[in-house]
Amino acid sequence: FLLLLSVLMAAPMGLGMEVMAPATINALNGSSVKLSCTFNSCYKVENKQFSLNWTYQECRNCSEELFLQFRMKIMNKQLDRFGNRVEFTGNPTKYDVSFTLKNVQLEDEGTYNCYVLNPPDRHRGHASISLKVLTKEPPKHDSTVAVIVGASVGGFLAVVILVLMVVKCVRRKKQQRLNTDDQKTEEEGKTDGEGNPDEGTK
């Protein structure tokens, strides 16, 4: 439930595009972990225009290092830090830009930034994941009730998000049509204004 809340907080509905990712992911040293990042857009993904950047920050004030990019196709930037341990496992046409980090190391801890741009959306969406690397598995707790409650709440929130996205897309496309109609009306007005003087001289 807290994970869902963190995802929602990272994706304000007022912006043109929402990028969603868990705020924190725990991974066991030596394992493989999927860093999930998805996005919502009112427009279909076109490879010629779509762009994606994944960057890594070792600390809050450290510079971001680009290690994975999508420009027409996926391009891995082979940082010495990751080598060939990064594998893109998402599908942009399904609004999924996740990747898998193999053989996780302690030095992989840090912040992973997911940047997405899907024109005609003008806003570049962004989400961050804090990766924590564990040296041993945390103790297991009986959380059956919590899982059931979380699944119920999560399902409800997913429906709410979907409804809000549909409403937002409908409004945006309606506004675009209105703007287009206003522009046409203005152009027609200019044309009429230019024709009147000629009629007066006759």
From TrEMBL:
- Establish whether keyword Glycoprotein is in the entry: yes
Regions of compositional bias (Basic and acidic residues) in chain numbering: 179-202
Which subcellular locations apply to this protein?
A: Membrane
Query: Per UniProt, what is the membrane topology?
Result: Single-pass type I membrane protein
Q: Where are the transmembrane segments?
A: 145-167
The superkingdom listed in its UniProt entry is Eukaryota
Residue span, Ig-like domain: 12-130
Q: What is this protein called?
A: SCN2B protein
Gene source species: Sula dactylatra
